[in-house]
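agent> fetching stored inputs for the iron/sulfur cluster docking request
agent> found them:
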Amino acid sequence: MATGDELTAALRESVDRPYTFMHICGTHEAAIARTGLRSVLPEGLRIVMGPGCPVCITPQGEIDAALEFVDKDCIVATYGDLLRVPGTRGSLESSGGDVRVVQGIHKAVEIAEKTDKEVVFISVGFETTVPTVAATLMGRPPENFSILSCHRLVPPAMQWLLEQGEASLDGFMLPGHVCVVAGYEEYEQFPVPQVVAGFEAEDILLGLLMLVKQVQEGRCEVENAYPRAVCREGNRKAKEIMYGVFEPSDVEWRGFPVIPASGLRLKPEYECYDAQKKFDIEIQHVEKTRGCICDRVLRGVAQPTDCALFGKVCTPRTPVGPCMVSHEGACKIWNLYHVRH
Ligand code: SF4
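agent> prediction call returned; pasting tokens
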């Protein structure tokens, strides 16, 4: 692979007009911010973050539902990043209930095996994490265990972004982690330049260079700049497990309306693990928090520093929105690496 300096020089030679590309991955944003990559990009080449953080795109209504499980005296288990995301009446951390941080669903099942209480796992994540959740449910955990499925699929959100045209994008850098599992066949339906990229600075620079070339040559394809980890079909076994347990459903994303077939609900044969059904809880639509522009950041039409609250009222200690809570959230990342654009 060419060095970072060579790729940067090639990009500088190639960029002949303004370009805006979107990545859909918090890990890409963290790598870009940590390496200061934006500072070496040629003028006119912009890379914006889309809805690539699974915690950030979880709408407030789902956080409120998680709080309802606390009210019903359940043990609520989830990832640490979700703990401090504010719902309309506080966060899981401030709920005063029995809320436990776990590394994954298997740890939540272990809790259920050692108690008679109901245990609800708040299950967030894109295609990357779903197969593990599905495989665990196939193993038939105890009856006092259930999940709130907050899973989302990336392609339907991309389709929505393309249909809206709000962010004036020239192309997408596809999420390497998601594509390891899902492959990239499904993205071939989109008439826009796309490149799957890895997470080293060189991977990202190569991805950007390939995107610029596609635009210049008038091509709209999915190219793979991360062949050491990703193939077109993805992990067939993992997808089989995933769709053996879940089926697509229409769900809202934070910052987006309800996007058809962009969520995952449990299939009828696994409904006994559906916490929403078990406890008769409806997910409500909640209007966004005043002043927070997470919704616009997640759609790529604003950046964290456009928010009047950034670094002042809203900090990692006092987060107003989820993008300042999650390690994959743009605001938290920009705050950590002092990104100012
Ligand atoms: Fe929301 Fe805080 Fe980010 Fe502003 S800085 S968009 S309030 S998370």
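agent> quick read of the result: The mean pLDDT is 94.
agent> awaiting further instructions
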